[in-house]
User: Fold this.
Amino acid sequence: MSVRQTWLVREGGATAAWFDVRLAFADGARVEALAVLSGRDVRIEDVRARPPMSLDDLAVLGEWLEHPLFQACVEAPGGGPGGSRRARPVWPRGTEVCRLVAQEYRAAREEGGDPVLAVMRVTGHSRRKSLRLIGQARDEGFLAPRRARR
Assistant:
């Protein structure tokens, strides 16, 4: 299970933080949710599941997400979610970044989404920087070459 803060919006004295929550089960099932922390309320904005969830599973989704979301909200520095002014998550450096970028790239391709946009969302970088990271992942051998060399 992973919880990452994706956006932080401050308007007036109010702060709203969006979290990307991913659950992976042993049988291969996955659940992705977008949760919003606003004031003292937490709401689930979007849920995607493979295979589709039953109504019973959807009813207990809140219990599954309660503890990880609480940890993500409490552990944020500065007394609130995302104590820094930048919403970009902290990422490792070196080959670990290449491995994580390749993992996100492949996951987006499998789901039929835009892999560059997926890397942009996860890293918080611009399109140009994300393309550079994808190129580095290719150079390190984590992704297949773009075209065959002659």
Q: What stands out?
A: Confidence is low (pLDDT under 50) at residues 76-86. The first helix runs from residue 55 to 59. The beta strands are 2-11, 14-24, 30-38, 41-50.
